[in-house]
Amino acid sequence: MNIIIAGPRGKMGSLITKIASNRTDMKIVAGIGPEGRDYIGQDIGIVSGMGRALNAIVVDDIKTVINESDVIIDYTTTEFSMEILEAALRSKKAVVCGTTGFSEEEFNRIKDASKQIPIVYAANSSRVVNLMYKLLKIAAEAIGNVSDIEIIEMHDRYKKDAPSGTSKEMGQVIAEALNKELKDIAVFGREGKGERVPGSIGYHSIRSGDISSSHTVMFGLMGERLEITHHAYNWECFAQGACEAAAFLYGKEPGLYTIKDVLKIE
Fold first, then answer.
1. Do residues 200 and 258 share a domain?
2. What does UniProt give as the signal peptide span (predicted)?
3. Between β-strands 94-97 and 224-232, what pairing exists: parallel, antiparallel or unpaired?
4. pTM for the full predicted model
5. Is 155 a catalytic residue?
6. CATH number at residue 176
7. Could you state, in chain order, the average pLDDT of each consecutive group of 10 residues for the chain (266 residues)?
8. Active-site pick, 27, 111, 137, 155
9. Catalytic residue flag (residue 231)
């Protein structure tokens, strides 16, 4: 299968390039970057820091290369992701999107596009994080109604959105298990006086240094607490999942798929 990788100089794009280039079932045909970047016109292997050419050029006009591809892998920014989505829709190409921070309107556009093209939307493409979702559902169903639930997430200083897309998905899993709407019970940070609101889910976002990704969900009871935590030591687990998602999409019918579909996690 032929793939295009968006943002190949970014932390995810560079790792995806490395992993995809070593897979026997994938061929990188091009990279795509925003207009005006100094690496446009260079080989993606050099741009991504691999130190060797892969015979695939990074362009800033996806229309010039999109027909060579089967799947586009996009972990960039919300603005650039929407441009890529529209191009994929016009050319009827599959998309793996791991970008986070979309507005409700933008995400609705992704849903609409999935009626015409296959899309995997993966706020987190780690196999273990998606297993954690399952554990959170079990915990929430068992003790969620008698717990004070807090979500603490940590990322590097460069992450643009807060809370993280992953922590939002975790909150959604818990809220659904409690038959509630996350928007009705989420509390983002705290300041001032007053006791904790019963039944709420507290969010706390830390941005520091080069922390790859860390998520802890705490179920606090009187005299004890349960913590479910995932730490990523680097971003390679997410890049591996992105490539698995691209392989999954090859030949798929239009639809909005999740990483659980890709990894077969019930």
1. no
2. none
3. unpaired
4. 0.80
5. yes
6. 3.30.360.10
7. 96 95 97 95 96 96 96 96 97 96 95 98 88 96 98 95 94 97 95 93 97 96 98 90 96 94 83
8. 155
9. no
| Catalytic residue (choose from 159, 180, 204, 260) | 159
241 annotated as a binding-site residue: no
For residues 58, 123, 156, 138, the Cα torsion angle rounded to the nearest 10 degrees is -160
Sign of the CA dihedral with 128 first, then 134, 137, and 141 last: negative
- State the Cα–Cα distance between residues 243 and 240, nearest whole angstrom: 5
Question: Is 7 marked as binding a ligand?
Answer: yes
- Residue 37 is assigned to a ligand binding site: yes
Domain count, the chain: 2
Ligand-binding site membership of 51 (annotated): no
Q: Please check if 137 is assigned to a binding site.
A: no
Is the domain of 44 the same as that of 90? yes
Q: Clarify whether residues 101 and 184 are in a common domain.
A: no
